[in-house]
Amino acid sequence: MALRIAVIGCGAHAQVAHIPALKDNRHAELVALCDSDVRKVNHLSALYNIPKRYTDFDDLKADDQIDAVVISTPNYLHAPMTVASLEYGKHVLCEMPMGLNSEEALLMMKTAEREKKTLMPGLNTRLRPDVQTIRKFIEGGELGRLYYCKTGWLQGRSAWAMDGWRGERLRSGGGAFLSLGTTLLDFSLWLLSPKQPVSVTGVAHLRTPSAEVEDTAFAMVRFQDESLLTVEVGWSLLQEHDLTYFNAFGTTGAALLNPIRIHKEMHGHLVNVTPAVSTKGIQRASFKMLIDLWIDALLKGAEPVVPARCGLVVNRIVDAFYESSAKHREIALPGEQSD
What we know:
By secondary structure, the chain is of the alpha/beta class.
């Protein structure tokens, strides 16, 4: 049995990750593409031998010959397209952020539950082999009790253009923290689980007074056991090289990402215990695993390995960040946070 799948939005992620991964999965039949750019749709459809071509989402959602969709569109379209797709009987894999805020994310989850369809957020970074390796060290207690983690995604001005939808609040829903921070938050929270985040303190920086969204942001997430996670993101920094990192510090060891390095205190010495982990094509491999896990869950009628509530937790933290930045104080997170 093959699931008939459509990809909505044919930008970089769709072209580099989603389309190739779907074509590689023997249980998936990529039957349709949808994008407002007709030339892009025609080119990719011809390149990958995809039979159906749509430039209007309303036409695609009504196609009852499509079982599931991958939503790879600008942020502001994630929630409305997901809700409509679910209501028209389609399973959904939605890129992050799931919604512009937690209200949208919760609506998406409730719609999936009501329609008895599967909603899975596109949280691929936790599936990278280097991130999985760090998780194993943490779960095995080999780093001791984690008390401080820091992560960041810092890009120079040439990396991201502020024109187009990313620079418009109505379409992006937020700036650097929403667009870059969601990925960092998810895999960091996953590595730190079952620790429960309880509050957020955030600061957003706008490059110019007329800017609609922040280009740089800093956040501190406090956990129930008083451990801390700091997050810094930016896409207009005056720096020579881009930087993405994650550092976890425990009572008996530490783990660093990009590249992966794991050190442990042994007999009074700091010893490098980093195992061999292949990082070749690591991002593409993580997207392939995401698609494979999604397809497997749909075929089995099971909850995905990456459940929708993980996306909701991230949206709640993002909401608290923007509230904290606006009110200049720490903001408590609502309810129990778990994955």
